[in-house]
Amino acid sequence: MTEYQPTAQFQAQLVPYGPAQKSGEFDNMDQVSSTKIIFVFIITFQTQVIFASLPLVINTWNFRSSTIKAWETVFTNKQSAVDAVVEGCSVCEREQCDTTVGYGGSPDENGETTLDAMIMDGATMNIGAVAALRNVKDAIAVARNVLQNTKHTMLVGYQPIMLDPCAVGSQATEFAIQMGYTNESLRTNYSQGIWQTWKDNSCQPNFWVNVQPNSSTTCGPYEPISNNDVNNFWTRKEHKFGSGHHDTIGMIVIDSNKNVAAGTSTNGARHKIPGRVGDSPIPGSGAYCDNTVGAASATGDGDVMMRFLPALLAVEFLRANMTPSNAGEAALRRIVPHYPDFVGAVIVANITGDYGAACHGMLEFPFSVYTELTGNRVERVKCFSVN
Ligand SMILES: *[C@@H]1O[C@H](CO)[C@@H](O)[C@H](O)[C@H]1NC(C)=O
Ligand SMILES: *[C@@H]1O[C@H](CO)[C@@H](O)[C@H](O)[C@H]1NC(C)=O
Ligand SMILES: *[C@@H]1O[C@H](CO)[C@@H](O)[C@H](O)[C@H]1NC(C)=O
Ligand SMILES: *[C@@H]1O[C@H](CO)[C@@H](O)[C@H](O)[C@H]1NC(C)=O
């Protein structure tokens, strides 16, 4: 069950059978679980340890309660891989994993939380996605309704100016309500507090460039500066991402019949411009899968990553016989020459049940795995850097 791949520098910290962590505790995890886990061992060879078996559940970050729910869905209840991804990611939406998934996090410039989610079925190559979904908490479940109850791929629910959430124009919301979901505000005191602090801080940071008044010092409304004045002087102030600010749950499930599904759910970038859609609901960017090959899902700086479709790239590199970790790294390497400071990660699995991950711009990236052989555990990869 152990395969050695001398090319891949890898350090894994294996945490078998620890108690399910409440999301958001990654930074304290070792401390929290030290008394409870049976054993922890650290492997530091030039190897990658692979425990390939099906079914397989793998998801970004240490969102373990999602992993466990997906496992119960596909293994215990023998439901489909698609259902397992939806059930698993739905846990994160309800638990507001790190406040970057689900309601009450990442308020936009109007103080509203909107949700992006996608589910893809590798058996049928069918996809359902929602983008900028307002007033409905169950984003990935609504995405499954788009997959199962429409011939469309993505519904978008945003009307930038009017703040009535269900005014004509919030089409994805109307669809969701028709499908039986609850119409409710996604604001919480927490998200309103973040928004108020941002307003009080002259709307810093934000995502505007080449506008006046100066977006580095002043709130909007803005207007574009003339083309003659556009120069490299304007730099985007990046938001903190990475440890402690994980931004998406991405999940892959492969059932014992080798049916592959992949999906994502997120509330996007904090202080995003209203109407912004990130990489998570974009097929080939947030996730991609194909029953003949495997699957990938990405997390990170979505505005940059969606320009490269890293999940599609990783699946195509699998098709070209790369190992999962090498396929993930090759996908991210496409981005680096253009955006050397980008932060992101990708998880990859092939239909044998071999899996891996790659990351850039952080020290390491944790992801959660569940198979019969491994149980549920969090693994970490060291991120590559080009120097
Ligand atoms: C949804 O809730 C909002 C706010 O309470 C309300 O204005 C709107 O009419 C509701 N829409 C539907 C379709 O129920
Ligand atoms: C939210 O804030 C309001 C007003 O400050 C307060 O009355 C309410 O108890 C708070 N709710 C929670 C859940 O903290
Ligand atoms: C905008 O404000 C920042 C911060 O004060 C300053 O460094 C920059 O020079 C300003 N840009 C322009 C074009 O005035
Ligand atoms: C999955 O990846 C492993 C490790 O690279 C490889 O041994 C296996 O053949 C791959 N499976 C398929 C179906 O390509």
Automatic annotation (TrEMBL):
Residue ranges of the TM segments: 37-58
InterPro entries associated with the record = Ntn_hydrolases_N (IPR029055), Peptidase_T2 (IPR000246)
**According to the lineage, what is the superkingdom?**
Eukaryota
Q: Name one Pfam family in it.
A: Asparaginase_2
Query: What is any one of the record's Gene Ontology cellular component terms?
Result: lysosome
Cite the entry's keywords alphabetically.
Autocatalytic cleavage, Disulfide bond, Hydrolase, Membrane, Protease, Transmembrane, Transmembrane helix
User: Which CDD domains is this protein grouped with?
Assistant: Glycosylasparaginase
Q: Where is this site: Cleavage?
A: D247, T248
Q: Name one GO molecular function term.
A: N4-(beta-N-acetylglucosaminyl)-L-asparaginase activity
> What is its EC class?
hydrolase
Instruction: Provide the E.C. number(s) assigned to this enzyme.
Output: 3.5.1.26
Identify the residues that bind substrate. Answer: R276, V277, G278, D279, T299, G300, D301, G302
Which Gene Ontology biological process is one annotated for this entry?
proteolysis
Which residues are catalytic? T248
> Which Gene3D superfamilies does this one have?
(Glycosyl)asparaginase
Q: Provide the reaction this enzyme catalyses.
A: N(4)-(beta-N-acetyl-D-glucosaminyl)-L-asparagine + H2O = N-acetyl-beta-D-glucosaminylamine + L-aspartate + H(+)
For this chain, the family text in UniProt reads: Belongs to the Ntn-hydrolase family.
Tell me, what does this protein do in biology? Cleaves the GlcNAc-Asn bond which joins oligosaccharides to the peptide of asparagine-linked glycoproteins.
Subunit text = Heterotetramer of two alpha and two beta chains arranged as a dimer of alpha/beta heterodimers.
State what protein this is by name.
Answer: N(4)-(beta-N-acetylglucosaminyl)-L-asparaginase
| Source organism of this protein record | Pseudolycoriella hygida
Origin organism lineage:
Eukaryota, Metazoa, Ecdysozoa, Arthropoda, Hexapoda
